Amino acid sequence: MYPSANGRPSTPPQILAAGSRCRLARGAGIRCTGTLDEPGQDAVLDRLLDLVLVLALRTWCAGANTAPAWYRALADPAIRQAVRLLHEDHGRRWTVAELATHVGMSRAAFAARFPALVGEPPLAYLTGWRMTMAADLLRDGEVTVAAVAHEVGYEDPFAFSVAFKRA
Prior knowledge:
Layout: E1 2-3, E2 9-10, E3 16-17, H1 22-27, E4 31-32, H2 41-62, H3 69-73, H4 77-88, H5 96-103, H6 107-118, H7 122-140, H8 145-151, H9 157-166
Parallel strand pairs: 3-4
Antiparallel strand pairs: 1-2
Helix pairs in contact: 4-5, 5-6, 8-9
């Protein structure tokens, strides 16, 4: 119950969804109608469904046995920082020693801990991240392979093409 202007409890506001989003909205506990079309409804529903998705993913990832390895790895401060560095500066020519220095670990300890928590070595993770970004850019179809190669950290489009086909 929500307080009203006169101080007495009132019922919570109802959010209504219409059309094709109705099935998704029902899963979030939102009452659906096929006829209501209020101004701003699409924007509200988009944000609401984003919120529901984020909450569902957080709940799923909180389960110790169901969370992906990379998500569980983020609980380790040094590995979380390394993953952040790889994401923020994906074009850099990283080495394991450089990453270890940036996160305050020895190279040997970092080289052992990263794959144990993430599921693959740091440079393999970086290559996978680069290829994921490249696939997104190429899917848009508005950029050349050479531009995508440069964007994701490859100086040579041919080397990028080889790595992309391998991934």
